[in-house]
Structure formats: C-alpha cells, structure tokens
C-alpha cells in the first residue's frame, strides 16, 4: 500500500467506499491516514502485513490493485499470493497489477534492495500458474527511458479452471 497514493488519487475518487491498504511497514502505514486526508481516511482499513502473510477473506473485493510490490515476492510466494487474491474476489472482480518489467532477461535481482524485476513474459508465465487469467495488458507509454518499462495487467478469475 505504501502511504496510500493509489487509494487517495484513484480508488476513492472513483467511488470505492472502502479501501484496504496492506503494507508491511508500520511507520508508513501509520502515516497513511494523514496522507489520505480527513475526508476519506475512515473509508480505509490499514493492515500491517507482508503479502506473503496476507490472507484476504473470500468473496471480499471488487478490485485488488497491486502496484510495485511483486518485486519483493519469490516466484512461489507470487503464485500463492495471487491464488489467495483470486479467492478474495467477488463475482466480476478484477485484479490490476502495475509493475516495472525488465525487457531482455527472465529476471534481474537487485541485491541492494532485495528485489526481483521480472520480464513481461516471465511475469505472465507465473500468472498462468494461478487461477487468474489476463483480460488486458498494456505498457505505460510515458515513462522515463532510463527506467524499466511499466506493465499494467488486468486479471479476472479463470472460470475454465473451476
């Protein structure tokens, strides 16, 4: 979740009445209500948890937005997390991923921050191991060329897996 930029700038203005912010840093999470602002801070639940330890309730969410955090998941944790997220979707629910992707290798490890940037094909191959299916994918076109490109992927439950 970070400090709640997506909740404040996108989800709450779009009319979502409740946002759950999941963030492993208690310090960052404690600052989120002030950042989100008095008008909407009470519309959010603040959950201090890593994605590896986050087990959302079934049939809970219309939308799950996951941005710039998958880089901290191992492949196994990634698949497990997205399977749990899939079970948390209400009928018609969507998962959105926004993530930097490397362009020429399967993945690149950054030892300084313990992150793992995956190529888009590699990321998609991991998603194929989940109960979700890609319904839309695109690349952000206005992003600095000296940084990894940003992929945006929308997913829904793959009914053919049931």
From TrEMBL:
Does the entry feature the keyword Plastid, yes or no? no
Q: What class of enzyme is it?
A: transferase
Keywords in alphabetical order, please: Methyltransferase, S-adenosyl-L-methionine, Transferase
Q: Which InterPro entries match?
A: MeTrfase_NTM1, SAM-dependent_MTases_sf
GO biological processes: methylation
Name the EC number(s): 2.1.1.244
Q: Please name the Pfam families in this protein's record.
A: Methyltransf_PK
Q: Which domain of life is it from?
A: Eukaryota
Which transformation does this protein catalyse, written as a reaction?
N-terminal L-seryl-L-prolyl-L-lysyl-[protein] + 3 S-adenosyl-L-methionine = N-terminal N,N,N-trimethyl-L-seryl-L-prolyl-L-lysyl-[protein] + 3 S-adenosyl-L-homocysteine + 3 H(+); N-terminal L-prolyl-L-prolyl-L-lysyl-[protein] + 2 S-adenosyl-L-methionine = N-terminal N,N-dimethyl-L-prolyl-L-prolyl-L-lysyl-[protein] + 2 S-adenosyl-L-homocysteine + 2 H(+); N-terminal L-alanyl-L-prolyl-L-lysyl-[protein] + 3 S-adenosyl-L-methionine = N-terminal N,N,N-trimethyl-L-alanyl-L-prolyl-L-lysyl-[protein] + 3 S-adenosyl-L-homocysteine + 3 H(+)
Give the Gene Ontology MF terms in alphabetical order. N-terminal protein N-methyltransferase activity
What are the record's GO terms for cellular component? cytoplasm
Gene3D superfamilies of this UniProt entry? Vaccinia Virus protein VP39
Which family does the record assign? Answer: Belongs to the methyltransferase superfamily. NTM1 family.
- Annotated protein name in UniProt: Alpha N-terminal protein methyltransferase 1
């Amino acid at each position: 979740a970070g400090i709640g930029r997506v909740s404040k700038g996108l989800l709450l203005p779009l009319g979502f009445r409740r946002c759950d912010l999941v963030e492993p840093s208690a310090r960052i999470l404690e600052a989120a209500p002030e950042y989100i602002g008095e008008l909407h801070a009470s519309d959010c639940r603040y959950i201090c948890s890593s994605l590896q330890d986050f087990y959302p309730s079934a049939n809970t969410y219309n939308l799950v937005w996951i941005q710039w955090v998958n880089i901290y998941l191992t492949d196994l944790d990634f698949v497990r997390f997205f399977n749990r997220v899939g079970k948390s979707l209400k009928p018609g629910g969507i998962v959105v991923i926004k993530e930097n992707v490397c362009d020429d290798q399967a993945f690149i490890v950054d030892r300084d921050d313990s992150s793992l940037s995956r190529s888009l094909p590699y990321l998609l191959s991991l998603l194929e191991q989940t109960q979700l299916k890609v319904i839309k994918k695109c690349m952000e076109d206005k992003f600095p060329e000296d940084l990894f490109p940003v992929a945006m992927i929308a997913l829904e439950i793959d009914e053919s897996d049931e």
